[in-house]
Structure formats: structure tokens, C-alpha cells
Amino acid sequence: MRCGARWLAGCGLVLSLLIGAVQANPAMSEAIESAAPWPTQGRIIYRIYHGDSGIQIGRTTHTWWHDADRYWMESLVETTGLAALLKDFRYQQRSEGSVTAQGLRPERFSVDQRGKPPQEALFDWVGGQVRINRGDSKRQAPLVAGDQDILSIAHQLSQPGAPQAPVVLTVVNNKSAAVAKVRDMGEATVRLPLGQMRTRHFSVRSDDGNVKIEIWLAAGQHWLPVRIRIENRKGEILDQQAEHLVLGEPAQGNPS
Hints:
The chain is mainly β. Helix content is 11%, strand content 52%. The protein is built from four helices and 15 strands. It has helices at residues 4-11, 26-33, 81-86, 152-156; strands at residues 41-50, 56-66, 70-79, 90-100, 103-113, 119-124, 129-134, 137-142, 148-149, 167-172, 177-192, 195-206, 212-218, 225-231, 237-247. The chain has a 15-stranded mixed β-sheet with strand order 8-7-6-5-4-3-2-1-15-14-13-12-11-10-9.
């Protein structure tokens, strides 16, 4: 429990990610390609567990909106229960950009954390650079087609026209841009607060070991991300498991 809120701050929903050398399951690949279109708006609420302890330390509320041309998404991470009594933590991430024939193309990723200045990553696709601004700290990294931010990657995996795993790309957050590998680990049935679900499991690992993320997309729910498991370099794990999913409701703060 002691590391719960601090670990939330360290990775805050994260998703620096992606891609490897495991053969994709052809049947599942075809299923995703022929799946119903990405819902135009919705909300997923996740319980956040600390490792395999079964202890809930927080909640993530993930909302998104798109009109097949532009997209917007947000994840709000908050401590709950005893963890909230120990530290009232609030961490908000946003991603916005365009929807293309190859999937999502982020243009701006931002972070708003209580008590800290705003942070952002700006994607310059023409110049092939992403600029990461953290107060007085500024850095740049190369950018190529298909690169994602830590929020968009979970939805990009199921986009028609997106490169299929295994694939290598750069995943951007508010601190860095990490070259990562995405592997298709095949089908998996998982038991979540939302219920038992058949999923397609992806592993996302950066070359430097800083990014270790597992993503499960639900076969019966438009291939939406219903479980996201994040591990830091110390081996501490945040396991986000969906407990509530609503489609068609306006996402709070969306530009529509």
C-alpha cells in the first residue's frame, strides 16, 4: 500500500509501449479487421489493483470521442479507499489528433497533475519530431508514421489499417519517447469486475526496459481495452481492470 499513490504518480495510467516477434493469431487478426467500427464515444471505468494483492488503490475513468476524422480521449486516475486517505491523488491525461486510414495520429498529449505544472508532448508530423515540454525541461525525439502516445496506443491496436503485431514503434508520454515492441500474445479469457471476457492479449515492451505493459482487448466489446497492466523497473505493478463500460454517452469534456 505504501507505494500505491507514488507508483500511480510514476506511471499514471502510462502506456509508453510496443512490439515483438510472436506470430499473430490469423483468426483473431481477421476478427479484429472485420469487427464493428470503433464506437464514436464511450466511457470505461477501471479498478486499479496493486500487483496481484487484490487490494484496490484507485480508479481510472477513461473517456473518448471521435467523428472518423478527429479523436479526443482522456484518462483520469484517482486514489480511492484507504489509499485516498493516505494521499489524495489526481492525474489526468489527454490525447487528441486525427483518424487516418492507418489508424490514429496523435497531435497533442498532455498531463495535468494536482500540484504540478501542466506537461505536454506536441507531434510535428511534417518535421518528423515530437517535442516534450515539462516546465523548464524540454526535449525532442524522432517521429515516424505509426508512432503513438501512451493513451492512443490502446485504441490504435484495433484500428482498421493499423500495422499488425509484431511491430516496432515509438510511444510518447509526458517524460520521454520510448522505442518499443508490440507482440500479439493470442487469445485469453480473463475474469474482470465487469465479468468474464474473451480477449486478445498484447504485450508492449520498450527496448530499455522502462516500458512493460500488457493490454487486453475485448472480443465482444468492439475490441476495447478492458484490462491494462503496467509494471515499472522496480517490479511494482498497477493492474487496471474494467468494471463499467458505457457506449454512446457523451464523454465529459469532449469537443462535440
